[in-house]
Amino acid sequence: MTQREYEELRRRFPRFCGCDTCRGDVLVYALNRLSPHYVSTHQGEVLTELSLTSDQERAKLDVVLLEGLSKVGLAPRCGAKPVQLV
What we know:
The chain is mainly alpha-helical and 86 residues long. It has one domain (2-74). Helices cover 48% and strands 9% of the residues. The longest helix is centred in the last third of the chain and has 20 residues, at 55-74.
C-alpha cells in the first residue's frame, strides 16, 4: 500500500527528516489527493483501499507522494531543518 511506496521514495531523499510526524504528514497529503475506494465487510465495517493494479495508478501515487515529500520537506512540523528536495 502507500507506506511501502513512501519508504521506497523516501530512500531517494536522505536529507528529508522522515520522522513519524513527517512520514504521517506525507501519507495524509497523498491519501487526501487520491480517489478512495471503499469496501464494506460482512460485519458492517467500512475499509478504504487503494487500487494499484495499473502502472498509471502507481505513477499517480508516486507523483502525490513526491509532492508531499517536497511540501513537508519545506515546512516540517517536527522542527527539523527545512530542505528543498527538488
